[in-house]
Structure formats: structure tokens, C-alpha cells
Design a protein that fits this description.
One of its GO terms (molecular function) is 3D-(3,5/4)-trihydroxycyclohexane-1,2-dione hydrolase activity. The protein is an alpha/beta fold. Helix 1 (about 10-15) crosses helix 2 and helix 17 (about 420-430) packs parallel to helix 24. The chain binds thiamine diphosphate, the ligand O=C1C[C@@H](O)[C@H](O)[C@@H](O)C1=O and magnesium ion.
């Protein structure tokens, strides 16, 4: 056996350089680079290894562990899970900062390699700086918190353990059915210890993303179900996007007159302009998609997890007569809603089903185009919302009095409505641009109103809906597709929570555009509480003496070195967008928008749990309403 003497960290970096992925005959390196926040836990080991010989790996200095991991996740998601960044963090708080990001990767099935340092295997200097000490066990460290949010988790306490640990991690990350975060925690002393590694370990490894084929039984069963249905609907989920099923989805939809409805992850697999694409499904869905889903007697779920947002908490469909056909590479997902299961790749399954449907045509007739037309008229109305100081009725009704709305208009010096701003952006920016979002009221507005004309230009993290992903994620998307303009759609709440990687983007000259919708508060949560009978309680951003907070975000962005704009009218916004496009530096456009001017629900319901007893009649009523809804939901 030929061996090579390396530290554990050097072996890790050498191995990462040799991982390749092969999809549809195309072979590419799987690991693009490493995001790093260095501390005492990793600088002298992984830092040293990268300094000595990074190979082809790019090294990017992050500003916050969660932020840089979000960027890595967004990179992988935009690359359709075919390339990753690794993320190295120092121990203790550095590891803890990774937890929210690991959850984001897990909920969205996105591969990312997390490498937090662990406490000393020798225990000689214990307790080391940042080591939490548990009375019941010395074996527990902050890194154990990552177990709950990792698809694969391991602790390396000897240099030779690294070999089996890495092989397992890459097996998990490159399996479409279970892709997610792989976390390898390496003891701080072990990272720098040397071992005589078998040279074979470092030979080029190719991970094959072969498309999983459906069985004859599955195909026959699926074809029979479709042919027996009158009004089938295809739910386009994230799995359909990763499988690149665009053409076959359009072909099947057109040939058999089957409407497409989209989840947040699936949106832009097929562009909105496709005639049978009815847009978003569920709580944040369009009236068109929700109406079609309710009429459907067969739901064909392609690569969907059926989250509560997609199913309107299991009220979106007529469960009394609708059947389900689930096409998914994950058995866990395929089993949902008592479906007929096809555990296989979406694209290949649809391609093989296509000729088996022969002369089939759904009974939707002209309904699809009628629904679409009706929705376009609604979208058009939302593009022209004009505020007035008297008798103004916002989209979210009966929450704020005219007096309070006027107070916002005065304090923020704006009359801009969120829907109008958003549609203006959609109509102005280059259709090739990629938009990124994850939390707040914007995901709902985007899923309903954003028209895509180019595939894979809509990037929503709505599995975890983690505030802070918006800006960091946009940086990751820019790394994945540097030639495109990328736009972060972010609320003031999310921006305040985390925008650390805005600075990293500026630092590395990776131009991103931040579109900041400032309504001075957690608007969607304020809507949620007031919709369910509460008063406005600690969701508006007000000072100790009840004044509306007015933050100059444009000035802040300027201080970071970005070009910034203030745009509170359609004309100002168009001008800012045009100018931002010409810039080489990152930009931020601050829009002050009025609260309650985001879109409302369209024929959907969200089970959020309401207090069973309360001293407010309005909450008692909300509880009663929830109880009525629970009579008609599917129970599981
Ligand atoms: C990390 C994290 N913490 C808390 C939440 C819960 N949450 C969801 S949206 C939201 C407020 C978002 O406010 P903002 O970004 O201003 O958007 P708006 O609703 O006002 O459009 C909160 C607190 C979350 N999604 N993520
Ligand atoms: O609690 C939430 C409410 C949703 O409206 C929002 O989009 C999401 O970010 C969230 O966490
Ligand atoms: Mg807000």
C-alpha cells in the first residue's frame, strides 16, 4: 500500500478536490470551494491546509456562519444540487450559528458540507474556550445541536476516521432521494494530527446521479389512474425542477390538457407564460391554481413534499373524491396523502408515461384559459393600487384604521403599495434575471404575482422560510450564475435579522441587488395575529413612545460601499432599477411601502393553532372558525 502522510485537515482538502459528479453523461467537479469563518478551532488546521494547497477550491471569507452557509445552500440549489460549497466554522458559537442554516438545507433537501470544529479528543486542555460543559456527559458539545438538522452527522476523533466519514457524507449529498446537509465535526487537536493515508483514498471519485427508472407496475398503475380521471392537475414541485422536467411537463400538459400548478420550490420549472401554467398553489397561491386544484379528481404530485403551504393545510383538494399519484425519488415523500407511489425520477417517469396515455384528454376544456385570464385581471388590478388619505381599503382589510395608515404614510413619507412595487419590478428588470426570497409577506406576493418567462429564474427558500436567507442566498446565486443580474427581495425584518453576506458580496466584487421593502415591521406576522382576533401586538416597529421607526437603509448600504437608491413611486423605482443595472458594484433600493398592501389569501386556509380560551371575543370567534375548518380537512 502506498501512503501519504498528511494532517486530517490536509487529507480533507485533498479529498474534496477529487469529488466529481456525473449527470446525463456530463462530468463536473462537485465541490466548488470552501466558505470560512476562521477561529481557534479551524484556522491552524483547515486554514493551514487551504493555505498550503487549496487545489481547485475557491476560498471565500464569510462574515457570519449562518449567512455564509445560506450562501452555500443557495449556490447548490441554483446549481440544481450538482455542485456544493463546504463551510468551515470554529467550535462553540461558530457551530451554533450553523444550526439555522443546516435546518434550511435539510428542509429544502439541499446538499452542503458543514465542517464545524469540535472540542479536543484528548480532553487535555478542557474546558477549552467556547466548550459548554454538561454535567451528565463530557461527550456532548455544541455540535450535537446539529444532529437534529443534518441528514448525516459524524464526529471525527481519530485521523483515520475521516476516510469512512467522508465517503458516507458524499454518498448522502449526491443521492437525489436524500440529499441534504452532511455535518462532519472534527476534533480540534485531530485536525492537525498526521496519519499515513492510503493514496487510493485520494483517487478521483465519480458520483453518478443516475435517473431512477419507474417499474412497469408503477407506470401501468400511473397510466391507468390518469386515463380514469376527468380533471387531473399536475403539481410541479422542486423535484421536477431538479430533474429538469420542463419540456416533458409542457408536452404532457398541452397534449392532454392538464393544468400545471406550482409550489414555491417548483416555480419557474416551467415559465408562467406557458398557457396551462396556473401558477402558485395553496396558501400563497393564485385563485386560478386553487380553483383548479379544488375541481381536480387526480392530483399528480411531481417532486413535491406537500407542505401545509402547498395544500392549504390539507384543504386545497377535494379529498372526498380526489386521488393522488406521487412521482418522487424519495419514498418518504411518495407515500404522502395515500397516493399511488412511483418512486422514480420525475422527468424519466413522465417521458415513459407520455406514450401510454394515448388518446386521453382531460375534461378541463377551456376552463384552464378562463381561470388564467381571470387571474391576470386580478394581477392587473394589484399593479395599480393607489393609496388615498380617505376611505382607502388595502388588500388586508379591517386591521388598521385610515388614521393608522395615514400615520404610516406620514412617518415613512410614502404612499407606495407593495403589490404595485413588486409588479413594477417584474415589468422592468431583465427576464433573465434571478430573484431570491424566503420569508415574510414577499414569498406570497411573489408566488402569486411574479411572472417568469425564463426557466430557473425564481429562487425561493420556502422549506424553512428562514429570515436572513434573502441577502446571503442572493450572494450564493450570484456565485452560481455570475453572468446574470440577481435580485434579493427582502423585508425590513429579514434585512435586520441578517444581511452579513451583503458585505462579503461587495468585498468579492460579486454584484448583487437588494430590493428592500420597508413597512417598518413584521408585516405578515402582524396580519396573522390580527386575522386571528388579536390586536396589533409587538409586530410593528415602534419606538418606546409609539412612533413608527424610520430607518435610513439607503444610507447604511452606502456606508458598506454599495450604490443605493430611495424609491417610493413607480417612476422612482423604474429609474432606480435602470440605473442599478448599469452599476458594477452591488446596489440596494430602499422602498418604503405601506403595511397591509401585500396580497391577501385566495381561497386558501392556514392551520396555525388558535388559543382555545381567551378573554377576547374576536379570538374566541377565530377559534370557532378554526374548529369548523378542522371538520373538513384531511386528517393526515
Ligand atoms: C429566522 C426566523 N425567525 C422568525 C421567523 C418568523 N417570521 C416569519 S416572517 C417574520 C417577519 C418578517 O418581516 P419582514 O421581513 O419585515 O417582512 P414583512 O412580513 O413585513 O413583509 C417573522 C418574524 C422566520 N421565518 N425566520
Ligand atoms: O411564520 C411565517 C409566516 C409566513 O407568512 C412567512 O412567509 C414565513 O416567513 C413565516 O415564517
Ligand atoms: Mg416588514
Amino acid at each position: 500500500m502506498k501512503t501519504i502522510r498528511l494532517t486530517t485537515a490536509q487529507a480533507l482538502i485533498k479529498f474534496l478536490n477529487q469529488q466529481y459528479i456525473q449527470v446525463d453523461g456530463q462530468e463536473i467537479p462537485f465541490v466548488e470551494g470552501v466558505f470560512a469563518v476562521f477561529g481557534h478551532g479551524n484556522v491552524l488546521s483547515i486554514g493551514q491546509a487551504l493555505e498550503q494547497d487549496p487545489g481547485h477550491l475557491k476560498v471565500i471569507q464569510g462574515k457570519n456562519e449562518q449567512g455564509m452557509a445560506h450562501a452555500a445552500i443557495a449556490f447548490s440549489k441554483q446549481m440544481l444540487r450538482r455542485k456544493i460549497y463546504a463551510v468551515t466554522a470554529s467550535s462553540g458559537p461558530g457551530s451554533a450559528n450553523l444550526v439555522a442554516a443546516a435546518g434550511t438545507a435539510l428542509a429544502n433537501n439541499i446538499p452542503v458540507l458543514l465542517l464545524p470544529a469540535d472540542t479536543f479528543a484528548s480532553r487535555q486542555p478542557d474546558p477549552v474556550l467556547q466548550q459548554v460543559e454538561q454535567e451528565y456527559s463530557q461527550a456532548v458539545t455544541t455540535n450535537d445541536a446539529l444532529k437534529a438538522v443534518s441528514r448525516y452527522w459524524d464526529r471525527v476523533t481519530r485521523p483515520e476516521q475521516l476516510m469512512s466519514s467522508l465517503i458516507r457524507a458524499f454518498e448522502v449529498m449526491t443521492d437525489p432521494g436524500k440529499a441534504g446537509p452532511a455535518t462532519i465535526c472534527i476534533a480540534q487537536d485531530v485536525e492537525g494530527e498526521a496519519f499515513d493515508y492510503d493514496e487510493k483514498f485520494f483517487e478521483k471519485r465519480v458520483h453518478y446521479l443516475d435517473r431512477k427508472l419507474p417499474t412497469d407496475r408503477e407506470l401501468k398503475g400511473a397510466a391507468e389512474l390518469i386515463k380514469a380521471s376527468k380533471k387531473p392537475v399536475i403539481v410541479v414541485g422542486g423535484g421536477a425542477k431538479y430533474s429538469q422536467a420542463r419540456e416533458i411537463l409542457m408536452d404532457i400538459s398541452e397534449r392532454y390538457n392538464i393544468p400545471l400548478v406550482e409550489t414555491q420550490a417548483g416555480k419557474s420549472t416551467v415559465e408562467s407564460t406557458f398557457k396551462n401554467n396556473l401558477g402558485g398553489l395553496g396558501i400563497t397561491g393564485t385563485l386560478a391554481a386553487n380553483k383548479a386544484a379544488r375541481q381536480a379528481d387526480l392530483i399528480i404530485g411531481t417532486g413535491t413534499r406537500y407542505t401545509d403551504f402547498a395544500t392549504s393545510s390539507k384543504t386545497a383538494f377535494n379529498f372526498d373524491h380526489a386521488k393522488f399519484l406521487n412521482i418522487n425519488v424519495s419514498r418518504l415523500q411518495a407515500y404522502k396523502l395515500d397516493a399511488f407511489q412511483v418512486v422514480a425520477d420525475a422527468k424519466i417517469t413522465l417521458e415513459q408515461l407520455n406514450p401510454m396515455l394515448e388518446e386521453y384528454t382531460s375534461e378541463f376544456g377551456d376552463v384552464i384559459s378562463e381561470l388564467k385570464e381571470e387571474w391576470f385581471a386580478e394581477r392587473d388590478r394589484l399593479s395599480k393600487v393607489t393609496f388615498s388619505r380617505e376611505n382607502f381599503t388595502p388588500e388586508i382589510k379591517n386591521h388598521f384604521s385610515q388614521e393608522v395608515l395615514n400615520e404610516y404614510a406620514d412617518a415613512l413619507n410614502t404612499e407606495f403599495s407593495q403589490t404595485t412595487a413588486l409588479i413594477t419590478i417584474n415589468d422592468t428588470i431583465d427576464p433573465e434575471s434571478i430573484i431570491i426570497c424566503s420569508a415574510g409577506s414577499l414569498p406570497g406576493d411573489l408566488q402569486r404575482l411574479w411572472n417568469t418567462t425564463v426557466p430557473n429564474t425564481y429562487h425561493l427558500e420556502y422549506g424553512y422560510s428562514c429570515m436572513g436567507y434573502e441577502v446571503s442566498g442572493t450572494f450564493g446565486v450570484k456565485l452560481a450564475d455570475p453572468a446574470k443580474e440577481v435580485y434579493s427581495f427582502v423585508g425590513d425584518g429579514s434585512f435586520l435579522m441578517l444581511h452579513s453576506e451583503f458585505i462579503t458580496a461587495i468585498q468579492y466584487n460579486q454584484k448583487i441587488n437588494v430590493l428592500l421593502f420597508d413597512n417598518s415591521g413584521w408585516g405578515c406576522i402582524n396580519n396573522l395575529q390580527m386575522d386571528h382576533g388579536m390586536d396589533s401586538f409587538h409586530c410593528e416597529f415602534r419606538t418606546h413612545d409609539n412612533k413608527i421607526l424610520n430607518i435610513d437603509y439607503a444610507k447604511l448600504a452606502e456606508a458598506y460601499g454599495a450604490k443605493s437608491y430611495r424609491a417610493n413611486t413607480i417612476e422612482e423605482l423604474k429609474a432606480a432599477l435602470e440605473d442599478a443595472k448599469k452599476q458594477e458594484v452591488s446596489t440596494l433600493i430602499e422602498m418604503k411601502v405601506l403595511p397591509k398592501t401585500m396580497t391577501d389569501g385566495y381561497d386558501s386556509w392556514w392551520n396555525v393553532g388558535v388559543a382555545e380560551v381567551s378573554n377576547k371575543e374576536s379570538i374566541q370567534k377565530a377559534h370557532e372558525f378554526m374548529q369548523q375548518k378542522l371538520q373538513i380537512v384531511k386528517q393526515y
